[in-house]
Automatic annotation (TrEMBL):
It catalyses: beta-D-glucose 1-phosphate = beta-D-glucose 6-phosphate. Belongs to the HAD-like hydrolase superfamily. CbbY/CbbZ/Gph/YieH family. It comes from Nitrospira defluvii. The keyword Isomerase applies. Its EC number is 5.4.2.6. This is Beta-phosphoglucomutase. It comes from the Bacteria. InterPro entries: B-phosphoglucomutase_hydrolase, Beta-PGM-like, HAD-like_sf, HAD-SF_hydro_IA, HAD_sf, PGP-like_dom2. GO terms for molecular function: hydrolase activity.
């Protein structure tokens, strides 16, 4: 367990206290489900294919997508098209936005995003979805304590994933990529999705907890003024999570069970 060193009074003991908090807002990929690595692999396949073709076309060296650094910095936790745009900007590449109906062969932000989504869906269809045991234990524990729960994710597949894994009944509300688009909510690191979930649960942000594995996610939790932002370190990036707003970071969510 790592605690933030931002000068604030640390939480002690670092566990979820149901007398101080009324709700827990969970991210999906990388927190509840072992799908973050699937997303990262799909992003790498997408961008390496695109960058290789561009390098050949422009007669420049090929610089591949870094599945750790580039994924965490530019796309992890963000809405799909925001992730495409952010990574391309990091390579000084500007593409037209296109439309949501652009096919995978079209060289637009949304065309690339749709191509990545096809890679992700194909993997899920072939391999299925696994859950993190520690997250499930925490989820069951906070529910048993009478706390309200929500899932807040950039993924447009959130509802399908919850249904396939049997998680749907664990949450009172869901704010995902589809809902964010419908309500015109800004993606993480903006706090809009978490704030919308708290509003639906009728909980003030200081009385709610955010559980996130992405840098953009912990930034969103802090930007929204949530009472406790928990960083989940699945890939050895605890320092990044602390530096970007997590109050505490853990690799095992059972450490935080009330």
């Amino acid at each position: 367990m790592t605690q933030g060193a931002s000068g604030e009074q640390p939480f002690h003991p670092p566990s979820i206290d149901p007398t101080k908090f009324d709700a827990v807002l969970f991210d999906l990929d990388g927190v509840l489900t072992k799908t973050a690595v699937v997303h990262a692999t799909a992003w790498k396949r997408l961008f390496d294919e695109y960058l290789q073709a561009k390098a050949l076309r422009d007669h420049v060296p090929f610089q591949p997508f870094d599945i750790l650094l580039d994924y965490q910095r530019y796309v992890d936790g963000k809405l799909r098209y925001d992730g495409v745009r952010a990574f391309l900007e990091s390579r000084h590449i500007v593409l037209p936005n296109g439309t949501a109906h652009d096919g995978p062969e079209q060289e637009t932000v949304q065309g690339l995003g749709n191509k990545k989504d096809g890679y992700f869906q194909a993997h899920l269809a072939q391999h299925g979805i696994e859950l993190y045991d520690d997250a499930m234990q925490l989820l069951r524990n906070v529910r048993a304590q009478g706390m309200r729960t929500a899932v807040v994710s950039a993924s447009k597949h959130t509802a399908a994933v919850l249904q396939k894994t049997g998680l749907a009944d664990f949450f009172q509300t869901r704010v995902d990529g589809i809902e964010s688009e419908r309500l015109h909510l800004a993606g993480k690191p903006a706090p809009d999705g978490f704030l919308e979930a708290a509003r639906r649960l009728q909980v003030d942000p200081p009385r709610a907890i955010v559980v996130e594995d992405a840098v953009a996610g912990v930034q969103a939790g802090r930007n929204g003024g949530f009472g406790l932002v928990i960083g989940v370190d699945r890939t050895g990036h605890a320092e990044d999570l602390i530096r970007n707003g997590a109050h505490v970071v853990t690799a095992d969510l059972t450490e935080l069970c009330p």
